[in-house]
Structure prediction request, 207 residues.
Amino acid sequence: MIKEFTKGLIKENPIFIIVLGLCPALAVSTQVVNALGMGAGVIFVLLGSNIFVSLLKNFIPPRVRIPSYIVIIASFVTVVDLLMKAYTPTLSDNLGVFVQLIVVNCIILGRAEAYASKNTLGRSVLDALGMGVGFTLGLLLIALAREVLGAGTITLFPMGNFNGTIRIPGLVESPARVLALATGALLVVGYFKALFNWMETRKKGGA
Prediction:
């Protein structure tokens, strides 16, 4: 059953292999802290929706299954949105409408329809965690590349005397600012997609 978790990390990575959830991947990956916040929100919603869909799959009539899944997903998204506004208002402002748009994220609805509605609770939980962590890792890779090269900083959550921003000498004075723009997001995602394709091809060739 461990494969249900590990498949989402590389083999079926939501961003770089299945190519889902690109809107938040492109829009909120300007800073590492945004990627962490969005990733945590997606993991929470994926886990909650997969659990409820798996438990209720035998009670939901087939003709209303998609609307039912959306209601379940929207309930968990509302919880995430309210928690972010209450405890991390700055992060909530940075992510903006993309928190609410988790409702229509293809990863969430896709896992509910294609997996949780057809599998046991245990497998559905592992699938949700694997896909959620894989999505978060993908966001972090994109955000690290864009922020480090495009701004020369790494932005995290402020704690105590730490203001949340790590400045990288050399890069912070002369960053490649194009990577912080929308064009840069497309370039970074494209390069990582090529890297994952190369890794998969090499693995198959070695096998």
Observations:
- The first helix runs from residue 2 to 6.
- The chain has a mean pLDDT of 90.
- DSSP finds eight helices and two strands in the chain.
- Residues 2-148 form one domain.
